[in-house]
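queue> pop job 88
queue> type: inverse folding (structure -> sequence)
queue> payload:
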């Protein structure tokens, strides 16, 4: 009788947290980046952070447009290519 030798399965590389789902990527990369851009471009004035522009609808519209733009292009250029690499 032949002895059956157990073959070890190849160790699977763990997918980093940010590439497990687009939501994780969005929370870890896109959201902080757009919040930082909002603070720098709209709220930072005269060496202080001023929260009065948050009352204006144009600030929130800017934030939403920036979220959509950044999410779309980061999905195409960053997330889809890196996630595909880790799934293989």
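queue> result:
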């Amino acid at each position: 009788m032949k002895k059956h030798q157990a073959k070890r399965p190849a160790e699977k590389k763990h997918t980093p947290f940010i590439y497990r789902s687009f939501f994780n990527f969005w929370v870890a990369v896109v959201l902080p980046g757009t919040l930082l851009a909002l603070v720098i471009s709209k709220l930072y004035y005269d060496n202080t952070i001023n929260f009065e522009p948050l009352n204006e609808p144009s600030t929130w519209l800017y934030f939403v447009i920036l979220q959509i733009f950044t999410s779309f292009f980061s999905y195409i250029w960053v997330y889809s290519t890196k996630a595909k690499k880790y799934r293989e």
